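RECORD TYPE: inverse folding
INPUT: structure tokens
STRUCTURE:
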């Protein structure tokens, strides 16, 4: 099937068919920084024009290339997008910004990882933003019609990780968190738009997972085939997920090419049938962003990713196939900084 294809939209439409020894002391000290970034926070505006291709520049709400540490706190990363949403590098702080020698084009990248698989705690390396009142800087995703999450990813260890909250040593998490935008009522896990790997009918799959209405159910578009064919161990891969909350269409891309796949639910989880039009995401500011695992406020662990990441982009529009392909080609040739 054509990836992410939805039926043509009508005014009254029927139900849509389916879709990382760390410098522990230094990292702990850096955690004194607040997790919440107010609107208009520090932004790398001088370099914003190079953060994304010209065709997507106006839609870049938040973007992170891990070459722009906050000068006041190296455990935070400045936003290359227009929102100024400074990212917290949780638990590892500045040590999470590493050189990647596997690909000399990448420069500094983000390292995320599970720290202690044998004990429940809050020490996993992940990144994000969390505001229980809603992150005002991410207002562009309030009532959004579309969204895109994209970036470069490379696995660096065991995935999926052992479940640190389980007494069974053989238990593994059922998902590997990549990057996503939280809902307006999220506890740090629930998302509005997410790129991740998750169990679908007993098999781990690369997915785009979206939730149009806060507190309601999500829809999932799962790529065909084993996830390891899409994200081979130790290889840099460019991934993108697009979401159209009005039409119900989602799509996945790998290295600039659309992936075939299917929707997991065959009912109407986004409540698209009927009026009014257009259908938009809930009119709430997202509570933040999560990267490399859930709960960016660091209250618990879930779905860690033993991974490196770069050029993470969060857009308030669904990038077209041509725009995804152009962004892949543009960033795959990026020289090391």
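DESIGNED SEQUENCE:
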């Amino acid at each position: 099937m054509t990836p992410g294809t939805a039926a043509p939209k009508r005014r009254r439409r029927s139900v849509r068919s389916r879709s990382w020894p760390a410098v522990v002391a230094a990292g702990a000290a850096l955690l004194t920084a607040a997790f919440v970034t107010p609107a208009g926070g520090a932004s790398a505006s001088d370099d914003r024009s190079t953060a994304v291709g010209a065709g997507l520049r106006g839609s870049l709400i938040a973007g992170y290339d891990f070459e722009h540490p906050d000068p006041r706190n190296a455990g935070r990363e400045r936003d290359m997008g227009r929102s100024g949403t400074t990212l917290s590098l949780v638990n590892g702080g500045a040590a999470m910004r590493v050189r990647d020698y596997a690909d000399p084009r990448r420069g500094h990248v983000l390292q995320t990882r599970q720290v202690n698989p044998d004990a429940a705690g809050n020490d996993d390396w992940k990144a994000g933003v969390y505001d229980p009142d809603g992150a005002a800087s991410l207002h562009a995703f309030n009532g959004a019609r579309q969204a895109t999450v994209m970036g470069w990813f490379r696995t660096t260890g065991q995935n999926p990780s052992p479940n640190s909250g389980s007494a069974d040593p053989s238990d593994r998490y059922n998902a590997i968190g990549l990057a996503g935008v939280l809902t307006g009522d999220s506890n740090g896990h629930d998302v509005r738009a997410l790129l991740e790997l998750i169990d679908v009918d007993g098999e781990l799959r690369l997915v785009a997972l979206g939730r149009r209405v806060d507190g309601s159910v999500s829809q999932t578009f799962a790529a065909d085939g084993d996830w390891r064919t899409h994200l081979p161990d130790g290889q840099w891969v460019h991934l993108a997920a697009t979401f159209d909350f009005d039409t119900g269409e989602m799509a996945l891309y790998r290295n600039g090419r659309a992936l075939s796949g299917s929707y997991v639910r065959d009912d109407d989880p986004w409540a698209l049938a009927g009026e009014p039009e257009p259908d938009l995401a809930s009119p709430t500011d997202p509570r933040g962003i999560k990267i490399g695992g859930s709960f960016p406020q660091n209250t618990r662990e879930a779905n860690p990713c033993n991974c490196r990441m770069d050029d993470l982009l969060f857009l308030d529009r669904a990038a077209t196939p041509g725009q995804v392909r152009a962004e892949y080609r543009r960033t795959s040739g990026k020289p090391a900084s």
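NOTES: The first strand starts at residue 60 and ends at 64.
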